[in-house]
């Protein structure tokens, strides 16, 4: 991941094009650094062309009288003077022994490893320059463009501008391409061509962006006589890098040093500034008093944060032994940290995915934000059509309503359901809609933190406030978990009492069979569920509670309530009963196209859109809702956006000649074009992932065949987490139960103080945050191969971990190893 050292100031050199003088100006920087008394490390990761023209040799030769201070290195060298990806391919084709072209990971790891090794030898302030090849989008060995290939390292950069005809455009285009990927551009350097005078325009352009532009005269043309050429070249470098130290090049050096110092100082000050000014969500500030408790995230890429660890003074201990850790290079002030909660469940494709960033720019550049009532723009229209006609609304939804986030999307869904119920009841009974309406749901539900969403959940004392007025009734649901390698359905006491043997736990044949709803609907337990729900609804109808107007479910998994994996059979039976039972106050529709009994809302903010490896939960449950809400994965974790889908019969409840009967709900950023465009890009990428070899391999590990259709119940359930790992953890002494489904792994720790009163999961896993060195001194799967820690969140005595939909298998296996190691160490420790 990002590499930052106190005594090694690194800058990566990018060019706005080929033949813009990248090596000439880099050589000037190297020479000036050495002349200033600094040791210098020069790295040319990839070189193509004859050895006589090799940049690493040329930079060393041009270092002048301070050559002894300079060390130069090239990692991948090819004789063919073509693009690196083509040179690598041709070298492979022409080689007697076929060589594998390095992957992006292998390439970045090689660069990072060299940088770390250089840092290990530094005892005084040292400058390092990493020079790229060609323009910013020139391919690396694998064919990936340089901007994307180098991005995991996140090195501060110097852009060499183009002084030729058309160079203004290519320089600005390169700068913007770098910005789209988050690069820090500290300076722009270019030749002072007196005819095109590009430096004049670019100085003003970049000056407005507080980026200094430095220009120097171009070098003399090469002379045919080698000794004469050498003399002219030396005279040129003496003119732009004079011994007096008074030149623009030395000014640039000072500026780059200041940028390096400021970056470290700012990172070092951020914990205290955060403690002084920020009010965090879901955090008891009384528990966060030390600067060391603040996780400072400098950048993020893929599944990893790059966090500041400037207080780190000792090498990390080994992960699995008490013996001293092997000797390691000086630690970077930044280290990778696996994003173990997928950043509150938002990440679908990892952080800073370039496709999503470009989608955002595409819509921002075309629209910004535009008014939406009685209007349409392509990103919103195409997204609505995609969700209704092809996505989770296929076959039942007719309308898509846009809002800002999951909580507001649920507010919209509740308004839709209550109006639909009240309108039908009033029309049937000849009265006005009633206000004493409540929600039917499950204990442990969470639908967001806005007041209406909170009122749709029971008051647990956790997600609440002084205005919280819980309206409704909530069933205590049966749950599914893996214990000691066996799949068990746990029944709450009220349901267990209705079974023949009164047992609280029902062992099922397998995880797959537990989620085969169609078969289980014929089981004795389904009959017990049906009877229990009917009886409970009848008691509610006969009592003095609120009139139940809608059923709201988090299908399959209730996330914030504690990663509660609800028995899907119970949810299916509950849906069937409320749609057909005479226990409901609603008058049932005889039309198959109308909602019946109670409007059913699926809150799929957390579980939807492949979070569980399923495109939607509808297929597995074998039934569709009347309203569903989607967010989080919808935009790949880049911007907030929510969509509430509704059936036509729900939509028609708001139709009349009076505006006051309309759904008068909206947000300033409704159908935000940027969010809609990102959502469309995300859904397209996820759809391709669902057909990828990586997903096929994950299904095979769970003995689940490739889906023959979109009827997911035909192929069973599976996870990106390894089934053997899940089995082993479920048998540990300190683990009560485990569940894995899609990207989600949930581990419940044995603790008498269960629920949110427990701190056992957090305390048990605290050491997992620390980056540890791998056994055998092998590279970790984190970007750059650095040891990584794991950022995690807990829900009382439940620890959960979450992957992106494209997390590499080797990363998942490494996280499993870390989790197992910590749990095993705790399990074997004496009480």
TrEMBL record:
<keyword id="KW-0032">Aminotransferase</keyword>
<dbReference type="InterPro" id="IPR005814">
    <property type="entry name" value="Aminotrans_3"/>
</dbReference>
<protein>
    <submittedName>
        <fullName>Onanonoxo-7-onima-8-eninoihtemlysoneda</fullName>
    </submittedName>
</protein>
<dbReference type="InterPro" id="IPR004472">
    <property type="entry name" value="DTB_synth_BioD"/>
</dbReference>
<dbReference type="InterPro" id="IPR015421">
    <property type="entry name" value="PyrdxlP-dep_Trfase_major"/>
</dbReference>
<dbReference type="InterPro" id="IPR049704">
    <property type="entry name" value="Aminotrans_3_PPA_site"/>
</dbReference>
<dbReference type="GO" id="GO:0030170">
    <property type="term" value="F:pyridoxal phosphate binding"/>
</dbReference>
<dbReference type="GO" id="GO:0009102">
    <property type="term" value="P:biotin biosynthetic process"/>
</dbReference>
<dbReference type="GO" id="GO:0005524">
    <property type="term" value="F:ATP binding"/>
</dbReference>
<dbReference type="InterPro" id="IPR027417">
    <property type="entry name" value="P-loop_NTPase"/>
</dbReference>
<dbReference type="GO" id="GO:0005739">
    <property type="term" value="C:mitochondrion"/>
</dbReference>
<dbReference type="Pfam" id="PF00202">
    <property type="entry name" value="Aminotran_3"/>
</dbReference>
<dbReference type="Pfam" id="PF13500">
    <property type="entry name" value="AAA_26"/>
</dbReference>
<dbReference type="GO" id="GO:0000287">
    <property type="term" value="F:magnesium ion binding"/>
</dbReference>
<dbReference type="GO" id="GO:0004015">
    <property type="term" value="F:adenosylmethionine-8-amino-7-oxononanoate transaminase activity"/>
</dbReference>
<dbReference type="GO" id="GO:0004141">
    <property type="term" value="F:dethiobiotin synthase activity"/>
</dbReference>
<keyword id="KW-0808">Transferase</keyword>
<dbReference type="InterPro" id="IPR015424">
    <property type="entry name" value="PyrdxlP-dep_Trfase"/>
</dbReference>
